[in-house]
Amino acid sequence: MKRCKTCQVTILDPTMVCPLCHSVLEAIGERTGTKANGAEAAAESQERRDLQDAAFQREAHQELEEAAFQREAHQELEEAAFQTEVRGMYPDVGDTAKRLNFIVKLYTFLAIVVEGGLVAINYATYSGLWWSAICGIAILYFYMTLRYSIQKNSGYLRIILTQVFAAALLAVGVDWIIGYRGWSVNYVAPSAVLLIDLAVVILMLVNMANWQSYILLQILTVILSGILLILWGVGVLTQPVVVIAAAAVSAVLFAGTIIFGDRRAKNELKRRFHV
Question: According to the model, what pLDDT value does residue 34 have?
Fold first, then answer.
């Protein structure tokens, strides 16, 4: 089948020219096939481009994932290196606390076992003195030192107060166990106040930039000295020399702090007592 472009007619006969205008005819099937082949080629080309684009996108996505993985791995390595460096710079507080906790538990267990054995021996060989109680007080004192002064990692001031008051109570307990003679309250108690005064002076000299923070402790020593003077006045204490010395040192130390401290001392008192 052929067609004449000039006459716009279709010719069914197998001829090469139009019988009307004698123009060369065009084969309809060839043109259509050419157009079909061109469309198919264009479709195939577009499909190839789409496949190439998809492959490129997959490769780009994989590269991005690999880059992200490498960045994460690098960050993890940096964090691990930083933690290792930090552990090298600072002590491992967690391990130290665990070791101290284990030591306290071990000491508690051994102290109970040992004190139980001492009580049994003392009971079996009792001759008028419960010496096992003295050992128990000493064991308790060491437990308080280990628990509240070392394990708790308290400040110097709290450690000093804990140790001094525990030692004074230990002395009073021993005095009562061996037959009360009064040496624990006549000498040990005032000496404990003097020891606190000495500790205050040392702390103030060491921490001169913040010396006014120890005024509250000085007030405590003045109060304790006043209580000792009252006990002396009612006859509980029979040796006034050490008591008067402790009261005098505490009063002089507190007065000197107020006078020479001037505004900083007064501000500290206002801050402590809100006056």
Answer: 47
